[in-house]
Amino acid sequence: MKVFLIGCGDIARHHGRAVVRLGGSITGCFDISETNAKIVSEEFGCPIAAYDEIESYMPGSDYAVISTPPTKRLDYVEMVLRHHVPLYLEKPVSVTMEDAKKLKELAEKYDAKIMVGFAHYYRPAYRKMLELVKTGMFGEPVDIAFSRLSPGFGFHAKNMGASWRTDPDLACGMTVESVSHDWKLITAMAGGFDTISCNYTGTLASVPRFDNHTSISIRLRNGAIGTIAASWACDIPTCSRAYIGTKGSIFLTGEGMFEFTNLTWKTEDMPYAESIRFNDSYDHATGDVIFYAHESFQECLREGRPFETPLADGISALIYSLAAKRSSEEQITVKVPDWGDISAV
Q1: pLDDT (tens digit, 9 = 90+) per residue, 225-284?
Q2: Which helix (H) or strand (E) element contains residue 36?
Q3: What is the CATH number of the domain that holds 157?
Q4: Nearest alpha carbon to residue 144 among 254, 251, 274
Q5: Would you say the C-alpha torsion 108, 110, 111, 116 has a positive or negative sign?
Q6: Residue 160: pLDDT above 70?
Q7: Domain count of the chain?
Q8: E strand or H helix at 145
Q9: Does residue 92 have a cis peptide bond before it, meaning omega lies within 30 degrees of 0?
């Protein structure tokens, strides 16, 4: 397939490589940074488009990828959708409900095909975990415990200029930008939430709205509880995604925020735990992680199937993230709509 890239940061190059690996090509690229656009252009041998030329590339593209900062993308989205070109939209879909509403309106106006880039949902290790949970072998959820701690953006006030995430004009913080992944992973296994309680904080005085530590407690619709503990400023990288059920438990762990290395499970009728070892690394194989998402996206387009991570999931994740931020800022527990219920947006 032929794909146009809007946004040419590091993640865009992984998108481009995934497209090429799947037998496709990059028709062109755009970025407000001439340096970034040139890097992508040279790697994929594609032309650089000016802002007012973006739409001229749409008729020759099978889909577009938007990986710009979430605060700067509504105009790009309409440029793509106006030509009825499918869209791979990086998460978070936006940082305000006002923009989320506009995205929803654009999608409805153009009867759009939009998949949100919750790439970790498509990884082999998580897919195996989800497959086992869905068999019912662990019973109903009792406790969903997610923990991911690692050096990250702005760690010890370093690496400040390498990402929009620590740009004072663009930063939206960990609770919105990164925890959006966790909402999708948890709801896929255990359903929607009833309430969210959160405390978050930041350690970068120069970017006060950049929260890089967040601790969230949730209550699921079925009465189960859940926790998300996340940090971009932890010296010791580690992670765990756990489903503890009425009949057994399953853990996905690794040494790093998004390293999926060991999948271990045990049910009440098993004498010993069983494990599968994965070489499913985001830090060392980011391209593979992005590849699986594009592979699913293209399969859905060819077969006419619904996306597993549609725009509604992206908006639901934003609702949850903003509820978590409100909880922390007002020191209250926030009641939230069920996953996928975006009727109020």
Answers
A1: 999 999 988 999 999 999 999 999 999 999 888 899 999 999 999 999 999 999 888 877
A2: helix 34-44
A3: 3.30.360.10
A4: 251
A5: negative
A6: no
A7: 2
A8: strand 141-151
A9: yes
pLDDT greater than 60 at residue 159? no
Contact 263, 129 (CB under 8 A): yes
Give the distance, in angstroms, between the CA of residue 68 and the centroid of all CA atoms in the same chain.
14
**In sequence order, which residues have a C-beta less than 8 Å from that of residue 26 and are 6 or more positions away?**
2, 3, 4, 5, 16, 19, 20, 40, 44, 45, 46
Residues in the chain: 345
Q: Which domain holds residue 98?
A: 2-112
Which of 44, 56, 116 lies closest to 86 in space, CA to CA? 116
Residue 198, exposed/middle/buried by CB under 10 A (0-12, 13-18, 19+)? Answer: buried
Asked whether residue 273 is assigned to any structural domain, the reply reads yes
Q: Are 316 and 341 in contact (CB under 8 A)?
A: yes
In the prediction, which pLDDT does 162 show? 61
Q: Which residues contact 17 (CB under 8 A, 6 or more apart)?
A: 287, 290, 291
Query: Are 218 and 226 a contacting pair, CB within 8 Å?
Result: yes
Any residues with CB less than 8 A from the CB of 206 and at least 6 apart, and which?
157, 160, 168
Q: How far apart are CA 77 and CA 75, in angstroms?
A: 5
Question: Smallest Cα–Cα separation from 189: which of 238, 232, 136?
Answer: 136
Residues 24 and 81 reside in one and the same domain: yes
